Amino acid sequence: MTAQRACALSELEQDAAKRVEVDGVAISVVLDSNGDVHAIGDTCTHGDVSLSEGFVDGDTLECWAHGSAFSLITGKPLNLPAFEPVPVFVVTIDGDDVLIDPNVKKEI
């Protein structure tokens, strides 16, 4: 499979997460304060809730329900109660399109 359009770059708000679904996979897409776009699995590994409803702080996305923060770079939780990472996906920008292949995890 190849990367598919997840959303438009212009739809993203800086320092906010947007939930998208690509080929049935829920993904949080984040435009950080440096202008970089990140894509991580949208489901918190602790509470099975949507991470895109959480809070972006620098290069982390914090779960709104229990406070676990996940690195947008590695997917690793930075604090408890979560202890399992979420997947991180490769993002390609083509014009205004944000492209993600949900079958290709970013190598950390």
TrEMBL record:
It holds the Pfam family Rieske. CDD domains: Rieske_RO_ferredoxin (cd03528). Residues 4-100 form the Rieske domain. It comes from the Bacteria. The keyword Metal-binding applies. Keywords: 2Fe-2S, Iron, Iron-sulfur, Metal-binding. This is Non-heme iron oxygenase ferredoxin subunit.
